[in-house]
Write the structure tokens for this entry.
Amino acid sequence: MHAMKDTSSDAPDVLILGGGLAGLSAALHRGAAMGARPYRIVEKADRVGGFCRTEVRDGFLFDETGHWLHLRDPTIRALVLRLLGDNRVELRRRARIYQHGRFTPYPYQVNTHELPPEVAAECVLGFIEAQLGPGGAALRAREPETFGDFIRRHLGEGFAKHFMFPYNQKLWTVHPDELVASWCGRFVPRPTLEEVVRGAMGIVSEAGYNSTFLYPREGGIEALPRAFARELDGPIDLGVSPVEIDWRARRVRLSDGRILAYGALVNTIPLPELVRICRDCPEEVRAAAGRLKATVVTYVNVAARGEGPAHHWVYFPEAEFPFYRVGSASAVYPALAPPGARSFYVEFSHRGELSPSVAEAQAIDGLLRCGLLRSRDELLFAFAREIHGAYVIYDREHGPAKKAVLDFCAAAGIETCGRYGNWEYGGMEDAILGGKAAMARALERLSAAPKTAGGI
Ligand SMILES: Cc1cc2nc3c(=O)[nH]c(=O)nc-3n(C[C@H](O)[C@H](O)[C@H](O)COP(=O)(O)OP(=O)(O)OC[C@H]3O[C@@H](n4cnc5c(N)ncnc54)[C@H](O)[C@@H]3O)c2cc1C
């Protein structure tokens, strides 16, 4: 391999790989206080946004499945409100679970009153046993190691059997006993005994992390990355990928032949891809990157005539429905479909092949069976899309493998962040926060190191 020579006079202080929310956020937080260091974003797609993309077809707006803005961090909320300005609506979640031929309210744990009485009783009694009974004592005595034990410990055997195990098996493609518990504390609502009992009696309670959310009034979720991009004055190279990183010399070779020197590097592209293009990456780090796994999500966008549905999205734990969730963007926000029409996204998680035509047929069949689609005559069109590497799988290899890769990145001076740059389960807010933090680390590195990249 030849030594890289800088062929560009546009060498940025900070080079950002990937123009999704994490990369855009890094650029936005480029340190005004430190004199706004020059940066450059390199993005392989034809536009910025990453997973925050909106596809328009025949007057329907389809995001890459539901992309609803649940914001908890006050600084990120203020930033998003400022960026979107008037282009936003605030909505209250209307989510359901479809099971036993009926739609019951979400969260399941505090809404068992609409379930068959035997199921509700098993859930409540299992919860009490897990919290107070002798059967739960062993699990209460220690921190759960697996997601399966987290569910047994905090929700009990009934909730595990009727919802948490079958639903999560579908979503993650593996049983919760094969996943570690460390990731889920924030994402899995843990109700109190009072909430569970009141929920069984039909005294409705709003639990869970995402009961209200924001969404752009116009333009679908892609309006958000566009709003970020409008604030940025630095160059964004579209349709360009890094093909080799010489981290010792702080130079990156790009797919268009340019070689850029950089002062600091912020990465948001998937870790396995990053490792693949890093020069002099130890074999054990490459092997570790090979152990990072993620599911594939195939989603089917469905356009139909008519009104409804009443629910924003519905979870499907039962095996006879091969998808794990169905959402309706037009139910959340009617402007996402033309007048008199509605849309659905039907989500399948898998590891092996799922052909688009099979997914489309299964989606329509499932929508008809549960009644979300009343008849085939309502159907206007349907098409499948695939997301490779959608949900990071937190199996036992995830922690050690990710640590090996992140340790290498730290030693190589690469600040890595984002859903795939940090190989994590997180939402848009996490990506924005991750980009901000990575840029802060990059700026620190810049102020500590000499400005020019070393030669090789
Ligand atoms: C099915 C699904 C549903 C979701 N629903 C929600 C939701 O309702 N609410 C929520 O808050 N979050 C949701 N998310 C999560 C949200 O999409 C992500 O957290 C966020 O968009 C991640 O941003 P990012 O910048 O980290 O990664 P990405 O969006 O993946 O951005 C990475 C960027 O890097 C680019 N890139 C990749 N490889 C290269 C390369 N080799 N060279 C150059 N560029 C490259 C990509 O094109 C992309 O633009 C969902 C995610 C999925 C998959």
